[in-house]
What does this fold into?
Amino acid sequence: MAQTGRPLSPHIGIYRWQVQMATSILHRATGIALSIGTLLVLWGLMAMASGAGAWIHFEAFITSIVGLILMIGWTWALMFHLCNGIRHLLQDTGMGYEIPQFVRSGWLAVIVSLALTLAIWAWLAMGGVA
Amino acid sequence: MSRFRNPARRAIGLGSAKSGAQHWWMQRMTAVALIALCIWFVVMLLSMLHADYASAHAVLARPWNAALMIAFTSAMFWHAQLGLAVVIEDYVHTRWLEFSLIVLVKLFAVLFAIACALAVLRIALAG
It folds into this structure.
């Protein structure tokens, strides 16, 4: 930022913590994480197109401990970015700008994304029984 | 409005380039598409839990799955490079570095989107 010497508006350090801060920064952070995750989609598709020999390496990675931790992280990142993204699209239409609504939808995005992540991995841990 | 602007202003690039809404609009368009495509993508991955290579390959080779996968990866890379460009604009304040990073991200996004589409086509059109 250019150092103009002008007074700055109050920054993060001066505010009481609010859920809107968390959803805002998490939307950006999960967006960056998911951008890196696109490389896994690319790798998976290239491996599948290359043949069973290349697929083995991809499969070994995503079922390894590191792979599983990354997959769980990306699952939540995707679920949060999806939920909060829908929230932003609804806000783009002018909905939900009253402060209580804004706070409630923020918490809703956090809680629903965690619940979806839990549901997906619980289902996978149980071996995918329907 | 443009007739009120001094031609010199336009020549030295000050003021609106008349494309300010394009980034915002495409971010929303790809976001709406990705709501449906992400749900499809996750459900399809979950359905492949016990699949070996041959059966996973066969699932993706189905025409609608292949079409949706190309739509998904294209929208995904488009949306990702739009978002990354905003992040770079916000945090990188060295002009040449900011510009170079944005160009690099855009070029790689296009390359990776092409690679994904080609991979899906190869899977879909194989024997």
Remarks:
- The longest helix of chain B spans residues 95-125.
